Amino acid sequence: MTDVISMKPIGRIETPFKTREDLKVPPFNPRAPYHDPDIIGTVRLFEEYAQGAADIQPGTYAMLIFYFDRSQGYSLTTRSPRYEEPVGVFSTRSPNRPNGIGLSIVQFLSIDGCILTFRGVDMLDGTPLLDIKPYSGEIPGG
Question: What is the rounded (10 degree) CA torsion for 68, 74, 75, 76?
Fold first, then answer.
């Protein structure tokens, strides 16, 4: 028996990264562009979910849970810039996963109603946002 799970986005994530190639580690630079603290993203919550962000404060960290809507298919092993040989997909941040769910830890810079500006961008522009959960490095697992 296969369970079907249905989710509805609560908003969209806006970033300067339009394609997957924009996120790749550039040659001769071991850090991906999303490690740049000057790159800023925006969460635009759908109006019906605005009240859910009422107590998020600038400077706090959160986990953005999103859907890899432009990934096609998956493999249980994949290439990673960190390893020479293929590795299991669950040991990577690959967007090509069985369920296409992404999670990134971000820092909120400002909150204005349905618009939440953050640092820690590693998703494509227009990515569907599924949830926001608070993050604390003091708690095991966030």
Answer: 50
| Full domain range(s) for residue 55 | 11-135
Sign of the CA dihedral with 71 first, then 72, 78, and 84 last: negative
25 φ, ψ to 5°? -65, 120
- Predicted local confidence at residue 65, as pLDDT: 98
In a domain, 61, yes or no: yes
CA nearest neighbour of 107 among 123, 118, 121, 122: 118
Give the CATH number, domain containing residue 40: 2.40.30.70
Q: How many domains does the chain have?
A: 1
The pTM assigned to this predicted structure is: 0.86
Give the model's pLDDT for residue 67: 96
Q: How many other CB atoms sit within 10 Å of the CB of residue 90?
A: 10
